[in-house]
Amino acid sequence: MKAPQLMLRTIPTINTPRVTLRGMRTEDFTRFADIWAKPEVVSHIGGKPWPKSRSWDSFLRNAGHWQITGFGQWAVQIHGHSEMSGQTGFFYGSRGLGEDFDPFPETGWVLDPQFQGQGFGIDAATAAHDWFDRVVAGRSVCMITPDNEGSLKIAQTLGYVALRETLIEGDPVVLMTRKGPPV
Questions:
Q1: What is the pLDDT of residues 124-147, one digit of tens each?
Q2: Which of 60, 75, 162, 167 has its Cβ near the most Cβ atoms within 10 Å?
Q3: Which of 18, 99, 110 is nearest to 62 (CA)?
Q4: Which tens digits make up the pLDDT trace of 62-71?
Q5: Which residues contact 114 (CB under 8 A, 6 or more apart)?
Q6: CA 114, 147, 19, 59 torsion: positive or negative?
Q7: Which long-range contacts (CB under 8 A, 24 or more apart) does 11-15 make?
């Protein structure tokens, strides 16, 4: 894991016509935990709803990631809704998946099911990647289960290509890589 030279201490806010990416706030935790407790959210991410304790650990890791690396996950807030609707951004997963994956920032995106399939995910992930390309730059990676068609479509739109397949806790995933913005 190689952190960028510039470590930002302030999480940038990014506005698009449909969504705002912003730092997570203390008052977001209840909503964050609610999203990760939904079976339809985790069906492609480990398969088991998260207890509040796991959500709390992840919530704190998101905040700390910005402080240590200068990048992290944003809360996704859909315009016209007062609560966060999901998250997107970058992190070091340190998953032990090899030198072709682990040293690079990993990306991810999650939306509450009521907002899926409406283009909010690609809007949020594109905004996060536009920022990453300007501020951090370089290669990034992601992993997606082969049957998660929505996330595979987002990844391909962002310029990710399959690196290889592997198993995570017995479940197949596709490891993907992106060397920079799509041309």
A1: 999 999 999 999 989 999 999 998
A2: 75
A3: 110
A4: 888 998 999 9
A5: none
A6: positive
A7: 11/66, 11/72, 11/74, 12/131, 14/74, 14/127, 14/128, 14/130, 14/131
33 SS3 class: helix
Distance between CA atoms of residues 161 and 174, nearest Å: 10
CATH of the domain at 33: 3.40.630.30
**Whose CA is closest to 38, among 106, 94, 110, 87?**
110
Is residue 173 included in any domain, yes or no? no
What count of Cα atoms within 13 Å lies in the side-chain half-sphere of residue 141? 23
DSSP E strands in 104-169: the ranges are 106-111, 140-144, 161-168
Contact 180, 159 (CB under 8 A): yes
Within a domain: residue 58?
yes
Residues 6+ apart with CB under 8 A from 132: 71, 90, 105, 107, 140
Residue 93 lies in a domain: yes
For the segment 20-67, what is each residue's pLDDT rounded down to a tens digit?
Answer: 999 999 999 999 999 989 888 776 676 678 789 988 998 998 888 998
- Rounded-to-integer distance, Cα 92 and Cα 87, Å: 15
Residue 70, both tokens: 């200068």
